[in-house]
Amino acid sequence: MKKHVKSIGFIASAVTSLFILNASFKGVDPKVETKPTLQYEKYATAKEIGLMEGFPTAVEKQVTKKNALLTPPYNRWSYLHMREIYPSAPIKAAEKGVDLKSNIDMSLDDIQVIHPETEEHISMDTFLKHTYTDALVVVKGDQIVYERYDNEMHPNQPHQMMSVTKSFGGLLGLMAVEEGKLSEQDLVFDYIPELKKASAFSEATFQHVLDMTNSMDFTEDYADPYSGIRQYGAVLGWTEKVDGVEYKDNLYDYLETLQIHNGLPHGKEFHYNTPKTDVVNWVTNRVNNQSFQEAMHDQLWSKVGTEGDTYVLLDNNATLVAGGGLNATPYNLARFATMMINDGKFNGQQVVAPSIIKKLQEGGNIKAFDNGSESHDLVMPKGEWSYRAQWWIKHTKGQEAVMAIGIHGQWIYLDIEHQIAIIKQSSQPISKDDVLNAMDLNGFYAIVNHLK
Q1: CA atoms of 81 and 97, how far apart (whole Å)
Q2: Residues 287-312: b if buried by 16+ CB within 10 A, e if exposed
Q3: C-alpha dihedral, 344 to 278 to 16 to 218, nearest 10°
């Protein structure tokens, strides 16, 4: 029997989706063709397509700011080369790298993944190819037990992680709370008095914003040039401005304009909106007195033995936008994930407090999650999911997990109980492909079931 997977809104990242410059947007004449149509085979890699090859590269195979973020097949190349296209800032590695142990289990080649539409069993090779996988790394305990690469990826190649960035911002927020720099019950206004006139934040607690349950009048209709998300993008310099609309000059001034939604009290419903992450980051920056990049290095990257390059993307004002833009290597993410599934310890050092790990496992307000728009019958059934500190939490008995998720197939999947972590980096052609997202989850379940 064929099953249909409903839309998975949780995969959407407002930050990265701002780059859609599609003829389907209102105000854009679909008859105007700015670039020749590129013909390519389904599942083809960047090299097979010939993207950015030749001197000069053929026009139809050039990757530019207009097609790099979300347009297939150009994202098959761009997700490995983001800093060559957009402004970025580095995150320093550890002074001394720490190699993860490796004990490869080739039996994982033989697992079967259930296709979410047809319910047929597909091979690991088919699963990886059909979900446009660039890198897959599996950790059990403190050892890498499986790894696969395609599309010119390798263990130390940075890759775009989209909204996985949010989860690092949320973790840094929880770490600031653990250190006593603030309480989750404190009002955001206590630390950001600039938000006094922004009712979406002025009366909200830090936890409301951290868990995205603060009420906010904000629409994410990318086709509407007057929507909140399009105005947000124009402020950042990522989408075109519309005549007759008054725009703020920078991200911080824009955040001050956001208001509560139709009198809806804070804490009642979960709504996934990227500007909320910017406010979390603003609070954390202020109490730490350092940037996201500096905190990432000082509190995480320097302590988990990272090596090589990690960087974040910036807006046109050289401001980090916390909702997206982290670019990290498979092995550095695996080092981080190893720490998370080992009660916050890495290489004999306590990096993240066990109480924070427990807080994430316990999850957020399930009822608020179900009251929002993210619950879906087959992927996120009611009563089984929540959102806590910018992480997605699955509560299903036997499948409990803590996840960082980004569009186009970016995942950090943590089964803390069984000490299994999965890093998946992809360049899927559609940001919210329901079948591919469900297939990714089915792949993770199959891997965990095999290893546990």
Answers
A1: 23
A2: bbebbbbebbbebbbbbbbbbebbbb
A3: 130
380, HSE (Cβ side, Cα atoms, 13 Å): 24
Interstrand relation of 326-328 and 311-313 (parallel, antiparallel or unpaired): antiparallel
Structure tokens at 183: 């309480």
pTM over 0.85: yes
CATH fold group of domain 101-176+281-451: Beta-lactamase (3.40.710)
List phi, psi (to 5°) of 355: -65, -30
Q: What is the dihedral of CA 165, 169, 171, 173, to 10 degrees?
A: -170
Evaluate the omega torsion of the peptide bond into residue 73 and state whether it is cis, within 30 degrees of 0: yes
pLDDT at 319 over 80: yes
Per-residue pLDDT at 1 = 38
What integer pLDDT is reported at residue 327 of this predicted model?
A: 98
Q: What pLDDT band is residue 35 in, cutting at 50, 70 and 90?
A: low
The set of residues, in sequence order, having a beta carbon less than 8 Å from that of 42 and lying 6+ positions away, is none
Q: Which residue has the tokens 């934040």?
A: 201
Tell me what pLDDT residue 29 has: 38
Q: Report pLDDT for 60.
A: 96
Q: How confident is the model at residue 446 (pLDDT cuts 50, 70, 90)?
A: very high
Q: Which residues contact 159 (CB under 8 A, 6 or more apart)?
A: 79, 80, 134, 135, 153, 327, 328, 329, 330, 410, 425
pLDDT class of 15 with cuts at 50, 70, 90: very low
**Tokens at 430, concatenated:** 């559609």
pLDDT of residue 377: 65
Q: What is the pLDDT of residues 178-230, one digit of tens each?
A: 999 999 999 999 999 999 999 999 999 999 999 999 999 998 776 788 888 88
